[in-house]
Write a structure and sequence with these properties.
- Helix content is about 15%, strand content about 30%.
- The chain is an alpha+beta fold.
- A hairpin with a 2-residue loop joins strand 2 and strand 3.
- The chain has a three-stranded mixed sheet with strand order 1-4-5, with no helix packed on it. Strands 2-3 form a two-stranded antiparallel sheet.
- It has one domain.
Length: about 90
Amino acid sequence: MTLNPWILSDCLLDDYTSKLTMNFSNVPGPKEPWSIAGAKCKSFAFQMPTAKRMTLGWAIISHADVLKVTVSADKVSVQDIDWLKD
């Protein structure tokens, strides 16, 4: 059997996701807005991945004194996500 990167990454992902069902990350961002090619970045966010057995991810980041919360969920496992809208 050849151990190619896809088999290895799948095995590692299986091992990693078998230990948890949700992930959470909070990242302090810059206090001043970023600028790219002279244009100020007004907003940005990132998303936590959901894969295999990991069904819910929370990502919290600040940027220029604005806090942004991103939630990613597996729609089969987390069917009633409307409670987050409140």
